[in-house]
Design brief:
With 161 residues, this protein is mainly α. It has a domain of 57 residues. It contains eight helices and no strands. The longest helix has 22 residues. The mean pLDDT is 85.
Length: 161
Amino acid sequence: MAERISHDVTPPRIGKTAREELDQLLETLHEHGVLRFTNDLVAANPQVAKVLVDGLCKPGTLNAIQNVSVLAMMLSDMPPERFYKVTFAIKAALDAVGQHSPTQEGGSAPGVSGVYKMLNDDALWQAILPLVDGLKAFAERLDKDVDMPVSDYTGKATEGP
């Protein structure tokens, strides 16, 4: 039978060891005051918690948190393609409004014949109809009373405040 010969090769050292990297990280955290800040934060835990709880119990803070959560619910319900389309449509509209000058030509009243031409302008009606539909949906939604936004959004009943 042939004997197995074992040959151990020590790999060359490429960089710092894990311990050296950890020591360097610890020293860097200390030099930049992160360790002192973390240590002080942990030591002041009861006082920090009291300040946070007191701040969160104010009506204005609760309203802000609820409003942000409503925005998050709305954004989570909107597909990214539609959000992109709507936001850049708003940007284009704001850019057009910002470039408007009251001294531009065509800024005067259209008169009776101009109004008649506008009534027959298909491109104008194609641009106006989505705005009218949007205004209708906006008005319908404003007329809907909501006590608990989360209940309205999920369809599940929740206990009131």
